Amino acid sequence: MGTLGRAIYTVGNWIRGSGQALDRVGSLLQGSYRLEEHLSRHRTLMSVFDKSPLVDKDVFVAPGASVIGDVQIGKGSSIWYGCVLRGDVNNISVGSGTNIQDNSLVHVAKTNLGGKELPTTIGDNVTIGHSAVIHGCTVEDEAFVGMGATLLDGVVVEKHAMVAAGSLVRENTRIPSGEVWGGNPAKFMRKLTDEEIAYISKSAENYINLAHIHAAENSKSFEEIEVERALRKKYARKDEDYDSMLGIVRETPAELILPDNVLPEKTTTRVPTTHY
Amino acid sequence: MATSLARISRRCVTPSLSSNLIRRYFAAEAVAVATTEAPKPKSEVTPSPDRAKWDYRGQRQIIPLGQWLPKVAVDAYVAPNVVLAGQVTVWDGSSVWNGAVLRGDLNKITLGFCSNVQERCVVHAAWSSPTGLPAETLIDRYVTVGAYSLLRSCTIEPECIIGQHSILMEGSLVETRSILEAGSVVPPGRRIPSGELWGGNPARFIRALTNEETLEIPKLAVAINHLSGDYFSEFLPYSTVYLEVEKFKKSLGIAV
C-alpha cells in the first residue's frame, strides 16, 4: 500500500506540474495584459522616519487598517477594518476601551486656518462610528461620535456628549457635556437622557468584547484557518431558520461557538437610540 | 545584471561600522524628541513584542466568526479590498465594490439578487433595532447603494437607489422603487414610502417619482451588474501569488 500511495502522490505532482505549465502558456497568450499578483505590501503599523506607533498588546488593529506615525493606543481599544490613523505631522493618542469603527479617518493637518497644529486626543471608552473623519480634535472620555460625522480642526467633544450621525462639526466648536449636536453645520439638538449616557459606556464595553473575537479570528495562522474550514464543512447543517420552523435545534462544535455576550439574544437591556 | 547589481548594493547597505554609528545617533535623537515633546499617555501602554506590523497575507476578504461563514454566490463580484465578516450573504449577480466593509458580526446582512454595494460603504447590523423588528440588514433585489454610504440595521426593499454618501440608521425602511438623494441621512426608524424621492439631512420628502424614473431603477442595477462582470473576469479563480513567493524563496536560497 505504501507504493500505491507513493504512485498516487507522484501522479498528483505531475498533474499539478502540468497545471502550472498550462498557467505559463496562458500567461504567454495574454502577453502584456497578463495579470501578475503580488504579495500584499500593506503595512498595518507603519512608522514615518522616527515616529512609530505605540500600540498596547490588548488592542485589536484590523490587518487592513493603517496606523501610521506617532500614534498611541491604550489597552482594550479597537481599530476596525479600513481605518486610517495618520499621526505623521502631530501625535494621536487614543485611550483605553475606545473603538474606532470601520473606514474612519483620524488625522492632523499640517496647515490650519488658525495657524495651529493640534494633536488629536481621544479619551477612554469613546465610540467613534463608522466612516467618521476626526481631524485635529479632542474627544473626551465616554463620548459618542455618530457614524459619518466629520469633526474639523480644534473641535472639543466633552465627556458624555454625542455627535449625531452625518453631522459636520465646524472648526473650534465645543460640544458641551450631555448634549446631542448634529446637522451641517452642527448645532445643538437636544440633551441626552441618563439612559442614553449609560448606553454609551455599555456600547463601548460591548465593542471591547467584539474586538477580542475579531482579533482572535484575524490573527489565525493558515493551518488554523484550514482546520476550521474542514470543521465547518463537516458540521454543515441546514440553515438555522429552516430548522427552527421544524423545531429542531442542532449542536455546534465547541470550537465554532462564539462567547455569550456577543449573540444578540443574550442582551436584555433595550437599546435606546437618538430620536429626531 | 540588474539583479546582481541590486544584490551587491543591498549587501553594502547591511550593517557596517559607520551605519551602526548613524543608527545610534538617530536613536539618541529619537529618545530626546520623545521625552521632550510627546505627551505622556494617561495609562501605561504596554506594547506586545510579537505584534506583526506587516502581514504578507494582507487583509483577508472573508472572515468567518464562529460558525458563521460569509457566503458569496458564484457569479457575484466582491472586490479584493472588501471585508465580509460574520453572517453575510451576497446573492447571485450582486457586487460589492472596493473598500466596502460588510460586518455581520452582531446580526445578519443580506445583499439581494443583482444589487450592488458601491465603493467604501460600511454595512453593519446593530444588536437590536429601535422599531423592535429583527435588526438584520436586508438589501433586497435590484438595489443600488451608492458610494460611501453607511447602512446600519436597515431594510431596503426591492428596486431602490440609495444615493452616494447617504446614512441609513437603525430600523429605517426604504420601500420599493424609491430613490434617496446623495448625502441624505435617514433617522432611526424612518420609513421612506414607495415611489418617492427623498433627500437631505434629516431626509425629507422632495417629490414623487415619475413612471419613467421608476422603470430606470432596475436598469441601473442591471447595468452595474454587467460592469461587475468585466471586473469578475479580471480575476482568476485562485490567486497566483505563489509564483512570487517561490521567486522570493529562490532568491533567499530557501528550498521551494
Strand content of chain A: 15-25%
Number of H/I helices of chain B: 4
Query: Helix share of residues of chain B?
Result: 25-40%
Gyration radius of chain A, in Å: 25 Å
Number of helices of chain A: 4
Descriptive keywords:
heterodimer; A: 276 residues; alpha/beta; twelve-stranded parallel β-sheet; eight-stranded mixed β-sheet; 4 helices; 20 strands; 27% helix; 23% strand; disordered C terminus; B: 256 residues; 25% strand; mitochondrion (chain B); LbH_gamma_CA-like (chain B)
Short description:
The complex is a heterodimer of chains A (276) and B (256). Chain A has 276 residues and is of the alpha/beta class.
Question: What this model shows, in words?
Answer:
The complex is a heterodimer of chains A (276) and B (256). Chain A is α/β, with parallel strands linked by helices and 276 residues long. Chain A has helices at residues 2-30, 194-218, 222-234, 240-246, and strands spanning 45-46, 54-55, 60-61, 66-73, 78-79, 84-94, 99-100, 105-107, 120-122, 127-128, 133-135, 138-139, 144-145, 150-151, 156-157, 162-163, 168-169, 174-175, 179-182, 187-191. In chain A, the strands form 2 sheets. In chain A, strands 1, 2, 4, 6, 8, 9, 11, 12, 14, 15, 17 and 18 form a 12-stranded parallel β-sheet that branches. Chain A has an 8-stranded mixed β-sheet with strand order 3-5-7-10-13-16-19-20. The longest helix of chain A has 29 residues, at 2-30. The termini of chain A are far apart. The model of chain A is unreliable at 260-276 (pLDDT under 50). With 256 residues, chain B is of the alpha/beta class. Helices cover 27% and strands 25% of the residues of chain B. Chain B contains 4 helices and 20 strands. In chain B, the strands form 2 sheets. In chain B, strands 1, 2, 4, 6, 8, 9, 11, 12, 14, 15, 17 and 18 form a 12-stranded parallel β-sheet that branches. In chain B, strands 3-5-7-10-13-16-19-20 form an 8-stranded mixed β-sheet. In chain B, a hairpin with a 4-residue loop joins β19 (196-199) and β20. The two termini of chain B are 23 Å apart. Residues 14-18 and 25-41 of chain B have low confidence and may be disordered. Classes of the chains: A alpha/beta (276), B alpha/beta (256). Chains A and B meet through β1, β2, β4 and α2 of A and α2, β6 and α4 of B. Chain A: Its main location: mitochondrion. Chain A: Belongs to the gamma-class carbonic anhydrase family. Chain A: It is a peripheral membrane protein.
